[in-house]
Structures are given as C-alpha cells and as structure tokens.
Amino acid sequence: MASPRDDQQTRSRKKPTSGNSIGNGIYLSSDNGTASAREERLARRKSRVKKARARKSKKEGSSLLLVAAGVFAGYLLLCMVLFKSIPEEQRRVGISKVQDVVRKTRQKVKMTEARMANQIKNFRHKHMKANESADVVEKKAVESGDSHRSMISAPVVKSDDAHAGIPTGKWPVSIRDEEHDFEEIKHPGHEDGSVTMHVPRFWANDPVAIHQNKQFSRERALAIGTCIVADENGNHMRGDNCPKNQRTIFVAIASYRDFQCRDTVDSILSRAKYPERVRVAVVDQIVTGEDGSCDTPHAPCKSDPDQVLCKYKNQIDVYQMEAELAIGPVFARHIGHRLYRGEYYSMQSDAHVIFTTGWDTDIIEQMEATGDEMTVLSTYLTDVVGSIDSKGTSLRNTRPIMCNTEYEGQGVEKHLRHMSQPEALPEIKGMPQLQPYWAAGFSFSRGHFIATTPYDLYQPMIFQGEEMSITLRGFTIGYDFFAPERSVCFHSYAKFAPERNKVPHFWEHSGLYAGTGKKAMKRLLGIVHMNPETDSSEWDHTEEDKYGLGGARTTDKFYETFGVNVVEKTVQRHLCQFVKNKMHNMFMTNLRSDGMGIDYSKIDFRWVDPRPGEP
Predict the structure, then answer these.
(1) Are the beta carbons of 342 and 169 closer than 8 angstroms?
(2) Neighbouring residues of 491: CB distance < 8 A, sequence distance ≥ 6
C-alpha cells in the first residue's frame, strides 16, 4: 500500500483592487475647492447614513435576540410540562428512538471518516506513484526498445495455442512490488460509486481464457503453478516436473478484526515442513488504533528477530482495509484472490485456525493420492479443543464430510445453505473421499482453482449462499470436491473459546449498506440458475462471464444428481447416507484417464430420499 505523504499546496491571495467608488474605501477627488467641498459633504453624509443604519441594525438584532430567547424559554418550559405528562413507557420509546438516531448518525460520521480516509489514500496512491510508475515504464520501454510505451503491462501471457491466456509466474513474489500497478475499483457497497479502492490486479484477469468454457486439458492445467527452483531456462512454471517439496503454496485468509489472525499465520509457517515455499496473503479488515495488524509479531523484531512473523515477513502479504468498508466474506475473499500470483497449490483458511506439524506435505500427499488434477479438498473444520497437542500432532481420527444442505430464507431470496455436517472415521482408506459440496472455512487445491473460479466482486453483504455459489461454479468448470482423509488444521469456535464472543463481525456496519445484500443474492442465485422464477432483467449481469459458470458441466446435472429442486425449493434429504459409503466408489470409476476430473456425462444417477418425512 502506498506510503503516507503530506500533500503540499501553494496558495496565493488575491490583492484588493482600488476603484473610483466608496465601496472600495477610497474616494478619488479633484483638487478644485468647490468640487472638493461638495464631495467632502457627500462623503460625510454617506458616512452618517451608514453609521445610523448600523446602529439601527444592532438594536433590531438585540430585540430579535431577546424575543427569540423568550420564545425558546417558553417552548422549553412547555416541552418539560408535556414530557412529564407522557406515560413512562412512551417516554422510554421516545428516548430509545432518539438514541437510535444518535447511533445511526455516529455510524454515518464514522463511515464518512472512513470514506474520506480511503479517498485520501487513493489520491496519494494515484499521485505519489506517478513518478515511480513513469520510471518503471521508461525503464521497460528502453529495455524493449519501445520509447512510445506509456502503460505498465500486466503479467506476461503465454501466446502459444496450448498455453494461450495463461500468465507466467515467478518466485519469490509479493504484491509489495506491484503497488505502482494497483487498479482502482468501485466499492460494491456504494452503488453511486462514491467510494473507490486501490487493489491488486488479478494474476489471471480472464478466467474464461484459461478454462475456455470446456474441460480444459491437462497440459493447460500443468502450465499453472510455480516451483521455488527454476529450470535451466529460468522458468518457474515447471508443471509436474517440479519436485513436490518445491511446489509453492498460496494461503488466502480473510480476517475481520480477529486477534487470532497473527497466531494463525504463525502456525501456518512454523509448522510447515517446507515453509520457504509458502506464501500467506491476508485481507485484514481492522479499526486503526484499536486492532492489531495480522503481520505484527508479539514483540518487536529488533528485540526478537527469530519470531516466525519476523523470519518469514517477506512471505507474508497483508492488504489492510478499514473495517467500516467491510461488506462480508465474499468481498474480502475476492480481494484475497487478487493476491494470488500463480502458485502451484492454493489454500483458503479462516483467521482462527491452528495447523498440525508437517501439514504442507500431508495435505499435498492426500490431494495427489486422488489422481484427480481437478481435486478440491474442503471441509468444515473440527474444533481445536481436544484435537491437537502442544507439539502440533493431531489427536483426531475422524473428519467431517460435506453432504447436508437445506433451503432457508423467504421468497425469491430462498437459497441453499450447509447445515451441520456428520463427522466419523473415514470409510474410504488411502485417499480423500468424494463429496458433493465445498466449504469456505478450509479449501486446498491446485492453484488454477483460484484462477478459474475467483470470488465475485458484485456480491456485497453475502454470508450464507457463498459456499453454494462456489460449489456450483466450480462443478461446472470441472472440479471435484473431496473431504480430506486426515485433518491438517482445527478451528477455534466461540462455543469452547469464550474470548471469541468478543470478536466483532462485519455486520456491525450493516446499516450502512442496507438493501445491497438482497440485490447481491438475486445475482448469486441467478448466476447458478437457482432462481428460475426471477426474470433475468431483475439482477445485475456485470462481468457475469468472469464470475460465472464454466462449460464442462451444467448446474442441471448437479441438481438432478444430488436431489435439488430449484423450482419447488426442496432437497431430497438423507444425502449423507449415499455420500458416506457409496458416492466415492460409484463415481470415481468415471475419472478421466488423463486425471482431468470425473466425467459426469457417464453418470446416470439421481438421489431420491429413501426415508421421506423422517428427520
């Protein structure tokens, strides 16, 4: 982010001009005696009139002031009498309404302050970086021999047919080196465009150019993913020729005023077997002066340089934004996806999670065991209490699977959401277990999952519905979701950690964005074809291709297979019975020979509730 710098302006004051009039305070007269006398008399008369008018005005002002004071005193006395005559209950309601007005006013003031701070930051970012950007452009222009070049280029995109639309990658990498090339976007919570933000550009700005609206090839998939050691040609994109212990990992965390965020980052880096290949990217939504930054160690690095956050500071990218601008996890994770830079693997985690020792090699081993390049490991995490010891060893043999969903909400906003998920010993041994759904709290995949399925920019104030959206978009692009066989991290839930009840939530500012969530939900449901009763003209289609569906599969295939009726807004229940011990063995036989996902065109299965009416 841009460094603060005082804006310097020079101001000039206009000098008063003299003229041939009284109004200027100067009167130019002739030297002729008679004329001079007349002019002096005229001047004295004008002066007297002016003074008289001033005295009259002063007296009238004093009188008006006395009258106004009397009226106010009478009104105040009347109000006091009437107030005493109002019943106590109505009086409390009135006071409550006044307090509510005061609270909303304070919220608006805070929002205005945040907006002004953001605009100042954007102004500084735009103008402070002008010289730096010009220098970079000039340098690149000279190196390329193009003296007329005037714009900073995006990451180089491979141009041969097999790799068309896929940018190159490098290692090490940090968005700190790109601040001169951030782009300005409109804050989606402010429809009038009054608030803008400077954010990193996407590594791959066009997801469709990668997946091409079909099941993309293994060759294209392996063109994405950096290796910490380049080949003999200096190329870090080495595909599966890169040894597993040199494959880079991108970790995205969205944090809202979370005191445990830095401990989560510490856990990720300190317990990785190969921390040198891990890059952590945090979207840190905080109140300056009240909340600590996610990359701030517990002690200054000068006094204790061996702290994890000090040792690996160059591998931690933090995009910090004012909490008042937070509009839910979808927007925060959208920015998080903008921090991805072509890493081989990508992981998403909550900001209050503890990892096991050697988690990086464990989760990669599990993923590679599926033989499916389109694998996405995802689950609701088990609570940390009783799950991990002080050395980072897991104490659990069970893990949840994602299979239990229900409709919630009313009318056109009715949507699918995940319920509590069953946790048990894995029935599939030696690899993760296939499941229909994806979870936001933990996700691990190849890096191209982020590149092809980025979070939608235009879904402010969405909380429930986020996971169903990514599930369906990922499914249509060709991804398969699995529950890990072993848990590599555990979640800190408020039920067992009372201090988490004190952590604020993004909806503390929901009053500032009233109505935006309903519009966003229409868009979310419209994109995944879950609201056929709503006319498509009623929701926003901005950049729908970019944040929309793929062409490898259809949403209809998903709904038919897993018992979702988008017209009646019902589900065939007890799906977990099928997922628990049948889905994996039945569907994995249709894994494509090149490992590029399950071929659902060969699957003719429809789940029907075997026990309708039962809980």
Answers:
(1) yes
(2) 350, 352, 353, 380, 381, 382, 383, 384, 441
Residue 417 φ/ψ, nearest 5 degrees: -140, 155
Average pLDDT over residues 332-343: 98
Q: CB-based contacts of 537: which residues, under 8 Å, 6+ apart?
A: none
Nearest Cα to Cα of residue 258 among 356, 144, 341, 353: 353
Distance, CA of 181 to CA of 174 (rounded, Å): 13
Question: Torsion angle, CA of 410/413/414/420, rounded to 10 degrees?
Answer: -100
- pLDDT at position 12, please? 33
Those residues whose C-beta lies under 8 Å from the C-beta of residue 185, and which sit 6 or more positions away, are: 196, 197, 199, 457
* Cβ-proximal residues to 333 (8 Å cutoff; 6+ apart), any chain: 252, 254, 283, 348, 440, 455
Q: Is the peptide bond before 422 cis (omega within 30 degrees of 0)?
A: no
The β-bridge partners of 157 are 167
Closest CA to 541 of 557, 524, 562: 524
Tokens of 601: 């065109």
| CA pair distance 324, 111, nearest whole angstrom | 6
Exposed, middle or buried by CB within 10 Å (0-12, 13-18, 19+), for 240? middle
Closest by CA to 475, choosing from 452, 442, 496, is 452
For the whole model, what pTM was predicted? 0.77
Question: What is the DSSP secondary-structure string of 377-417?
Answer: EE-PPPBSTTTB-TTS-B----EE----EEEESSGGG-EEE
State yes or no: pLDDT of 26 exceeds 50.
no
CA distances to 153, 175, 260, 314, 527 from 317, rounded to whole Å, are: 22, 7, 17, 8, 31
- Under the banding of pLDDT at 50, 70 and 90, the label for residue 236 is very high
Least confident window among 303-317, 357-371, 485-499, 582-596? 485-499
Mean pLDDT across the chain = 84
Strand bridging mode 570-571 / 564-565: antiparallel
Q: What does the pLDDT look like over 42-63, one tens digit per residue?
A: 454 445 445 444 544 555 556 6
| Radius of gyration over every alpha carbon of the chain, rounded to an integer in angstroms | 32
Residue 110, amino acid: K
Mean pLDDT within 224-249: 97
Phi, psi (deg, nearest 5) at residue 100: -65, -40
pLDDT digits (tens, 9 = 90+) for 497-520: 778 888 888 889 889 999 999 999
Please choose, from the candidates 566, 565, 605, the residue with its C-alpha nearest in 3D space to the C-alpha of residue 583: 605
- Using CA atoms, how far apart are residues 500 and 612, in angstroms rounded to an integer? 39
d(CA 327, CA 331): 6
Q: Hey, what are 15's tokens? A: 């000098």
User: Considering the chain, what percentage of its residues have pLDDT values greater than 90?
Assistant: 67
- The count of C-alpha atoms lying within 13 angstroms of the C-alpha of 285, restricted to the half-sphere facing its C-beta, is 24
pLDDT at 122 > cutoff 60: no
Asked if 341 and 475 touch (Cβ cutoff 8 Å), the reply is no
